Amino acid sequence: MNKQVIEHDGVPVGVIVPDEDQVKFLAVKYQVWDLDARRFRSAEEARAAIRHLLAGKAPLVRQGGAAAA
């Protein structure tokens, strides 16, 4: 997998890049800054965390410090 732009409601909010056996989210919008540099199991897990955060909820954290959806 190469880097992939992640959008929310049609607006780019970050990119994910491969990081070992996961993906790392790199925020490009302040609204998702809380998720910057977090690792996820998949692009869909990152998108779910973004939706959760932008719905006004604090980012969920799973064991190991990575955000969970």
Please tell me about this protein's structure.
The chain is an alpha+beta fold and 69 residues long. The protein has one domain. Helix content is 17%, strand content 38%. It has one helix and six strands; from the N terminus they run ββββαββ. The protein has one helix spanning 43-54; strands spanning 4-8, 11-19, 22-27, 39-40, 60-61, 67-68. The strands form two sheets. It has a four-stranded antiparallel sheet with strand order 1-2-3-4, covered by helices on one side. A two-stranded antiparallel ribbon has the order 5-6. A hairpin with a 2-residue loop joins β1 and β2. The radius of gyration is 11 Å and the shape is globular. It starts with a strand and ends with a strand.
Quickly give the structural class.
alpha+beta
* Number of self-contained structural domains: 1
Question: How do the strands line up in the largest sheet?
Answer: 1-2-3-4
Mean pLDDT: 87
Outline the low-pLDDT stretches: none
Total helix count?
1
The secondary-structure element order is EEEEHEE
Q: How much β-strand is present in the residues?
A: 35-45%
Span between N and C termini? 21 Å
Largest sheet: 4 strands, antiparallel
Radius of gyration from the CA trace? 11 Å
Portion in helices: 10-25%
How is this fold's topology laid out?
Elements: E1 4-8, E2 11-19, E3 22-27, E4 39-40, H1 43-54, E5 60-61, E6 67-68
Antiparallel strand pairs: 1-2, 2-3, 3-4, 5-6
